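lol ok so funny story. i was supposed to be doing the assay writeup but got distracted and ended up predicting the structure for this chain instead. priorities right. anyway since i did it might as well share w the group, maybe its usefull for someone
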Amino acid sequence: MAIPDSFIQELSDRSPIEEIVSDYVRLTKRTGSNLFGLCPFHSEKTPSFSVRPDMQSFHCFGCNKGGGVIKFIMEIENLPFTDAVHFLARRAGMQVPEDKPDPNSQKRQRMLELNKDAAKFFYECLRSHPSRGAAQDYVKRRDISPNMVKNFGIGFAPDEWQSLTDVMRQKGYTAQELADAGLVRHSSNKSGSVYDTFRNRLMFPVIDVRGSVIGFSGRILGDGEPKYMNSPETLVFNKRRNLFALNLAKKSKNGYIILSEGNIDVVALHQAGFDSAVASLGTALTQEQARLLARYTNEIVIAYDSDEAGQKASQRAIDILSKLDMRVRVLRMTGAKDPDEFIKLKGADALKNLLERSENHIEYRLSSLGAKFDISKDDQRVSFLREAAVLLSELQNPIEREVYSGRVAQLAGVSADVIESEVKRLQKRRSGRETRKYEQDSSRPSRAVQPTEKGMRYDDPVSAVAEEGILRLVYLEPSLLKGVKLVPEDFSSELLGRFFERLTRLTEFGSMPSMDALTADFASEEISHLSRVLNGTELDAASILTNADEKAKDYIKIIRSQKRKKSGMDFAATAEMIKKQKQGHGG
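and the output, tada:
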């Protein structure tokens, strides 16, 4: 009996691998998306143990151990799978469910179907419901075009107690199913009746990266609170692990993602041509959302509101995103409180110019810090320098530290040596020594085509390389599976075929695949090899997914071509054997 996949996924999300590994290994070096340290599983002098936060996985290029966070705890603590799950669950404050098949898989599928039908209902209400006037007026007032209404599936929840309930029950959904999806609430009286959760609101369906409607966000049309209401946590919706409009933004060719605060900001940005905008769902950016973003880009532009709350949210987002080695810029909007207002007042071209001139996160944080203090006064200048030194000591890149240390020194009118000395002191306290300048990782073994694990060998290396490529793509972007018309038998490697089959099952009901969800189904050495397949490139996730559709087509073409060649060789050998047999019998 297995622990439910949904629990394993949530446990993985709450256990950032870089934090777990750092309890045992000092990760002192960064190359691309990889953090490196000395391997805890074999003796070495040069770091070859790699951690990839964007893939929530580890791999040692020396001893070839690898996997997800659960596999790491299994190896480092010498625990079986179930005990490792309990170990991490205690750390995360989670209760492990009884070891039994996931009883909720069918409920999840049913809930996704219900959400899809509810989204259609809301969408039609905006077009034809008798009381749609206020909603349509709001859409016009916010200058939301019909095309944007369609692209985002924007709808209207009538100001009625059971309009959605009645239509959904006619479609065969029960009151309990509606309640489980967060679409209705139970009355406080003992009648057992229910009423619609969303009423008199402009409705934004929340669609995940696989295209499934997982929840809703409703903006009230009249007076009242809350202004925005999101679906509660359900079997398919967790606001910490999803972002509004990422299903659209992931297709953008901009090369960066704009992170804004609200749904209307996102719609306004897309309408103005900035189709890479997303928003968190009524919460500050979370680590789970940051890791999700890292799968699609290595550059984020923060476009939060210009008020104090927005500035605090920007600082928090910077802290989270910079740990994933993402390039972070911050949009400073003067004369407007948010992107929507800025576009309306100054136009899309002005916003484009602002984007091109946006500050990187270091400049933004130093500028915000400078605004806190009057450096003409000695005591405040000292306070500024202390806080600036802390900020500089957190920078991983020594070039950035040197450049911005000089800028801080010039701004405060002190010697650069003073700043550098304080930064070094803080670094020594934090990590034991200053992080040295990036150096080329010449000791890292080159990635061979053949598996290094004992008992594993690719019979067809040409096909296997393409099979590995397909697996990397669908692992990072499960929606690609819809276009990958392959079955496990198409794979020349039985292991890679099994890996593909498990990934397909994991994503069937909306799960995002992870190494942790695979750990229980494969032998230790198989997981180590699969981690090498995923980790064996210095490219970040966003680079791997560049032109993903075309890459997938090329990989599939190679796999099928190699399969045909093998079938052709087998046919020729069989024909030759039959010919010889006939000759031997005088035929």
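Confidence is low (pLDDT under 50) at residues 431-448. DSSP finds 25 helices and 16 strands in the chain.
back to the writeup now i swear
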